[in-house]
Structure formats: C-alpha cells, structure tokens
Design a protein that fits this description.
This protein is of the alpha+beta class. It has a three-stranded antiparallel beta sheet, with no helix packed on it. A two-stranded antiparallel ribbon has the order 1-4. A two-stranded antiparallel sheet has the order 2-3. α4 packs across α5. It is globular. It starts with a strand and ends with a helix.
Length: 236
C-alpha cells in the first residue's frame, strides 16, 4: 500500500539527565491508499495521472505509467528534476531565459501518436545524453554571477546524470533486443513498430524468390560498468 507518513519527535531523558531526541513514524491518509501492482502483474494503475507531479515525473514512468509501478530509480530521477528546478531559480547559472527553460524542460510535453502525452524533449534529452543543455550549450552553475564554476554542485549533477544515462542505455538495450529482430511476409513487408526506447535503426532488406526478410541489427550490449550503475540506483 502507498500511504503518507508523519514523523513527530519524541524526547527521552536518560539517567544522567541527557535529553535524547528521536523520531517515530505514523502512517496517515489510509483512505487514499492504493495497492501497488507487483512487477510483471497485469493489474494497471487506476489513476496513473495522479501518481506524481507532471513537472518532476521520470521519463520512463511517464512513458509506462499505465503499466509500471514507480520504482526507486524513478523517485531518484524525480528528486533530480526537483533539484534542478530550484537550482535554476536560486543559483547563479548560464541560462539566459529561465522562464523559457522551465517551460521547455518541465512544463511542455510531446504527444505520442496524437493521444498519449510524453515528457518534454529537453527532459528526455537530458536523461539520455547525460547533460543539461540550453540553446545547444551545457548549463553551468556558478558560485556567483559570472564567477567561478560551482564545483560541488556541478559534480553532484554530473554524478547523478551519469547514473540516469546508464539506466536509460540499459533499458533501451534490453527492450530493443527483447523484440524479435527478424520479420517475414510473403508479399510485402510491413515494418514492425519499434519498442519505446529503440532509436531509429537502419534495416537491411534481403530479397528472396518468395519472401522478404527484414533484419534489425542487434543493439550493442552496454559495458559492465554501465550495466552496474542502474543497480546502484536501485539500491540507493
């Protein structure tokens, strides 16, 4: 079940007279609780659009919200989007037009097939490319206006994006190679729709006397280090 948690404080005096402050949890809002479908379950989310704030939802969850529950990796990505949102409002940076950046990254959306909404291209490119950009330039955060690079915050952003980029690279590889890569028809070939995360790939068409065979090259397996990074997200 998914519920909210209150964490009130509790004060306790030890024998020498030292006060100890502790916290304990109280589950609340049970009337709003929902059952989280298990991985692989056919049960769909009943109100998927209410399971997050649009501006901060992960790229993967927006695409699969009717079929997949929220994961730890999705929650960490949402934290990144919240962090970035406040960073562009509160820190010094190289973004010239903040309202435009916020609208393009957080508020806008694309329509898949004219029906289902997907997240903005800017957010998607940030997760797949591993860097935050504006006007084809990487966004820089500064200690002060026009001053030196804010190294600590920049390092934090880069380390998080490195994990997210690896996650989507592994997801793309798994989903692309899970599909049957050889399709055949007797008269004409109707290209099969690519999986969600597959990029457009060239197809080699081999003609025979009675059929045409469309072969899609297998996507190269990510490195062992890349595959390990998403696992680190899941264990966070």
């Amino acid at each position: 079940m998914v519920v909210d948690v209150l964490a009130p404080t509790r004060y306790q005096m030890t024998s020498p007279g030292t006060k100890i402050v502790g916290w304990y949890g109280i589950l609340t809002d049970w009337e709003l609780a929902k059952v989280v479908p298990k991985v692989g379950s056919r049960e769909d989310a009943r109100q998927p659009e209410r399971k997050g704030t649009w501006q901060f939802m992960s790229v993967y969850y927006v695409r699969h919200q009717a079929k997949r529950p929220v994961t730890v990796a999705d929650e960490l990505e949402s934290f990144f989007h919240v962090l970035l949102f406040f960073a562009v409002h509160r820190l010094h940076h190289s973004i010239d037009n903040v309202p435009s950046f916020v609208m393009k990254y957080f508020d806008s959306f694309d329509a898949a097939g004219g029906k289902k909404k997907t997240c903005s291209k800017n957010k998607r490119d940030t997760m797949l490319g591993g860097e935050v950009t504006t006007d084809d330039r990487q966004v820089e955060f500064h200690v002060q206006n026009g001053g030196a690079i804010h190294n600590r915050f920049t390092d934090l952003i880069q380390r998080m994006l490195r994990h997210f980029k690896a996650r989507y690279e592994v997801l793309e590889w798994k989903e692309c190679n899970a599909e049957d890569r050889t399709k055949a028809t007797v008269s004409a070939v109707v290209p099969a729709p690519q999986p969600t995360w597959c990029r457009t790939i060239k197809r080699t068409v081999a003609k025979t006397t009675s059929q045409q065979v469309v072969k899609a090259p297998v996507k190269k397996e990510p490195s062992a280090e890349t595959i390990k990074l998403p696992d680190e997200l899941a264990r966070s």
